[in-house]
Design goal:
This protein has eleven helices and ten strands. The chain is α/β, with parallel strands linked by helices. A hairpin with a 7-residue loop joins strand 8 (225-230) and strand 9. The chain binds S-adenosylmethionine (SAM).
């Protein structure tokens, strides 16, 4: 099933029938069947590796297309067959399940790649959320891409993005940093690397380490707003928002909460020089540079908007004349 076309994804390929790579007969079969579109109902799934996101708690969050892919695949690789079986049973899906997890991935990968090479339709899921996101699958995807085998995704829930949008913190630029190191020295070193990043930070954390991690985050990153998102999409969903130090103190006092947790931390905000200082430096720059260049120089040095500095520089030049 190796392709010659370079970057074609599984979704762009036509149906291969019953697992062997056959030439399409008749017109092309839609490879991304839209389950809401009666015209494509029953269309066979394209051969290739299908990365399928599953719910992070509420089984109702699975997408129609995820169900169609899981139903149409020749087999589903999952971390724990008991967990994925619950989802399949709920939706009456009988596709065979096999495991692909941290402990057998090296051994399983060659067989999965051989299956893909024969034109099989293979789905990969994790216990919850989006595979590869702090879950197995990256090496498999990398190997499939290297062998020019088709890879596509049925996207869906992920705890990181769900926590971000509920946090009340700036969503425009964010860094998902996965799990922090368990050991304190390594954790503080990791945090120091993100300290000057002007981005909202997202961490996964286990309840027993929550208070210690929040304390380290607060001490290394300094005073910032943050949120602890717990049990997202589940019955006891909770988002606790506040200054990092207060959240750390809260969980030190209450002890580890129950359930699954995401920590979201507001971005580093560089201290801006005060207006007088900016004017003084702008004035000095105008002794040597034109208005535009002085504004560009100060924007680079202070992080202030160039347009605002340009406007102030114009006023200053007019006053100087
Ligand atoms: N692949 C998953 C995803 O896309 O979100 C993440 C898997 S990672 C092994 C599991 C971690 O995700 C948990 O320890 C927790 O930090 C976070 N998580 C997963 N489900 C969650 C939920 N419902 N509420 C809060 N955090 C959750």
């Amino acid at each position: 099933m190796r392709r010659t076309g370079g970057n074609t994804s599984a979704a762009q390929m036509t149906s291969g029938g019953s697992g062997k790579c056959r030439k399409p007969s008749g017109g092309p079969i839609p490879s991304k069947p839209d389950p809401t579109d009666p015209a494509s109902a029953g269309a066979a799934l394209a051969p290739g590796l299908h990365l399928v996101a599953t719910p992070i708690g509420n089984l109702g969050d699975v997408s129609l297309r995820a169900l169609a892919v899981l139903r149409g695949a020749d087999r589903i690789y999952c971390e724990d067959t008991r967990i994925t079986a619950r989802l399949l049973t709920r939706y009456g899906i009988k596709t065979p399940l096999e495991t692909y997890h941290d402990h057998n991935a090296e051994a399983m990968r060659p067989a999965i790649l051989e299956g893909l090479d024969r034109g099989e339709r293979v789905a990969l899921v994790s216990d919850a959320g989006t595979p590869l996101v702090s879950d197995p699958g990256y090496k498999l995807v990398r190997a499939a891409i290297a062998e020019d085998l088709p890879v596509t995704a049925a996207p869906g829930p992920s705890a990181a993005v769900t926590a971000l949008i509920l946090s009340g913190l700036p969503p425009d630029t964010f860094l998902f940093a996965g799990f922090l190191p368990k050991q304190q020295t390594a954790r503080r070193l990791a945090l120091a690397r993100w300290a000057a990043l002007e981005a909202t930070l997202i961490f996964y954390e286990a309840p027993p380490r929550l208070a210690a991690s929040l304390t380290d985050i607060s001490e290394v990153l300094g005073p910032r707003q943050a949120a602890v998102a717990r049990e997202l999409t589940k019955l006891h969903e909770e988002v606790r928002r506040g200054p990092l130090a207060d959240l750390a103190a809260h969980y030190r006092q209450t002890g580890p909460p129950r359930g699954e947790i995401v920590i979201v931390v507001g971005p580093f905000e560089p201290a801006l020089p005060d207006a007088e200082e900016v004017d003084r430096r702008l004035c000095a720059a105008l002794d040597e540079l034109g208005v535009r260049d002085a504004a560009v120089k100060l924007a680079a040095e202070t992080g202030l908007p160039r347009s605002e500095l340009y406007r102030r520089a114009l006023l200053m030049r007019d006053q100087k004349q």
